[in-house]
Write a structure and sequence with these properties.
The chain is α+β, with helices and mostly antiparallel strands. The relative contact order is 0.13. It has 2 domains: about 240 residues, ATPase, nucleotide binding domain (Nucleotidyltransferase, domain 5); about 220 residues, ATPase, nucleotide binding domain (Nucleotidyltransferase, domain 5), CATH 3.30.420.40. It is globular and about 65 Å long.
């Protein structure tokens, strides 16, 4: 039976799927893992775990379908992550994760001062924030010189898997565009001068598109994974873009809304249709997963991570919390929550933001808190979509994807808060499925259509009667951040100082 494998390395787990040539999932597997948070604002992971989990997932998937004939392998992963390796490909330190890791504030200020904010946006598409990979590379140079002296290559989860499988040293354009300011988004190539200035000793990975073939499975990788030697492996990309592929949300005017450990949004424009890249200081302008596309993207630092925190804190299970949250009703009986428990990415770009719960009384229970958390993520989505539209995004279609789509209440709250409908496809497992589709496209003639693989099966429509409730709540949400920011920033500074006392370098 002809199949493709797709594996995605996520923040809290790695997932794999084995998919037949019609898009049916034949087997699924996952491995949970944790990130390391050695200090406030630091989020890391040992890159060697990614390969170990890939090996385990591939063997489990193939054991589940003994007659599978693997035609190609797809890979994706969280990002942008910065994994530096030596000339032999061995990691020299744990990977520094995407925008949830906020350690490189000083490097952001330095690079902006040296290069100029306007020049950075002109070349890279976006201003420097905690999401940008360039300042994190510079942080390693500044803070860990012994590590830096051994570093020779730059990987992200997808490119690391592609390397371990094939020996290739490649990176897709989309991921590269988030190593800002080292990538020139208009010319679709590395910015040579700035690369040499800030990443000089590192060899530049060759640039390809996500669905291009990186190489073939080596004999060594075949022995470890069970995937036949010579099987093509695609270059892959960052998980959110692979998720967009998995649900067909990469056409002009489409917006993919990913429900996961964090919440992510990707809006697509077509350069083929003459639509230029959108630029706004509070969002991220990137290359797309496919040639001829540009994206405006945004992300919350917590969403599923916040609901998981509340689950663990209350000692409850999700079905009970969801039932209590539904009973709480719109507005969570007078609560408003700021979901900035790990700082915030877009649109406020504030690594020192922190969580706030306002309106608590002794009458409130766990269901009210859980409802307020769900509404907080929806309010964050509304803030992002408003910012995108102000930048010129003509959002015509929203497609939901990710693990959070399994709960109807969360989807409904997001539609009610934003006032927008969401399409839900048949398969919402996300990035691993998108990676499998890209792999199939790399070796199939004709290329399959994602609408055939994964049709829309439901549309979540907003309840217009709740618009006044959520309009008022959104106003309070915005005013709560503005009114508490000064105190919260003082607390964030105190947290960093306490961390430094407890964990000296």
């Amino acid at each position: 039976m002809r199949c493709t494998i797709g594996v995605d390395i996520g923040t809290s787990s790695s997932k794999g799927v084995l998919v037949d040539d019609g898009g049916a999932i034949l087997a699924q597997a996952s491995r949970a893992h944790d990130v390391r948070r050695p200090r406030t604002g630091w989020v890391e992971m040992d890159g060697r775990i990614w390969w170990d989990e890939f090996v385990a997932l591939s063997r489990e998937l193939l054991a589940a379908v003994p007659d599978a004939e693997v035609a190609a392998v797809g890979v994706s992963g969280m990002g942008p992550c910065i994994l530096l390796a030596d000339e032999g490909g061995a990691p020299v330190r744990p990977a520094i994760l995407y925008g949830v890791d906020t350690r490189a504030g000083a490097q952001i200020e330095r690079m902006t001062a040296e290069l100029g904010a306007e020049a950075i946006v002109r070349v890279g598409g976006s201003g420097l924030t905690s999401q940008a990979g360039g300042p994190k590379i510079l942080w390693i140079h500044d803070e860990e010189p012994a590590v830096w002296n051994r570093a020779r290559r730059l990987y992200m989860p997808a490119s690391w898997l592609a390397h371990r499988l094939t020996g290739a040293y490649v990176l897709d354009h989309q991921s590269a565009s988030q190593v800002s300011p080292l990538y020139d988004i208009n010319r679709e190539r590395w910015h040579e001068e700035w690369w040499q200035r800030y990443a000089g000793p590192l060899e530049q990975p060759a640039l390809r598109w996500a669905g291009d073939v990186a190489g073939a499975v080596t004999a060594e990788a075949a022995a470890l994974t069970g995937i036949p030697e010579g099987t093509p492996v695609i270059v892959g990309t960052i998980d959110a873009w692979s998720e967009a592929v998995s649900v067909g949300a990469h056409g002009a005017g489409d917006l993919m809304l990913m429900y996961g450990t964090t919440m992510f949004m990707v809006f697509t424009r077509s350069t083929v249709a003459g639509e230029g890249a959108l630029r706004t200081p509070s969002m991220w302008t990137t290359a797309g997963a496919f040639a001829g596309t540009r994206n405006l993207a945004g992300g919350l630092s917590t969403s599923g991570a916040l609901t998981a925190w509340l689950k663990d804190l209350t000692g409850s299970d999700y079905p009970d919390l969801l039932a209590d949250a539904e009973a709480s009703g719109a507005g969570a009986r007078g609560l408003v929550l700021l979901p900035y428990f790990a700082g915030e990415r877009t649109p406020i770009q504030d690594p020192d933001a922190r969580g706030v719960i306002a309106g608590l009384t002794l009458a409130h229970g766990r269901g009210d808190l859980y409802r307020a958390a769900l509404e907080a993520t929806a309010l964050g989505v509304r803030h992002n979509l408003q910012t995108m539209r102000e930048a010129g995004a003509d959002i015509r279609r929203i497609v939901a994807v990710g693990g959070g789509t399994q709960g109807r209440l969360w989807l409904q709250i997001v539609s009610d808060v934003t006032g927008l409908a969401q399409e839900v496809p048949r398969v919402t497992v996300g990035a691993s499925y998108g990676a499998a589709f890209l792999a199939a496209g790399a070796v199939s003639d004709p290329v399959p259509a994602i609408a055939d693989w994964n049709p829309v099966v439901e549309t979540i429509a907003p309840d217009p009667d709740l618009a006044p409730v959520y309009d008022a709540l959104f106003d309070r949400y915005l005013r709560l951040y503005a009114g508490t920011a000064e105190v919260v920033h003082e607390l964030a500074a105190q947290q960093r100082a306490d961390d430094e006392k407890e964990t000296p370098l």
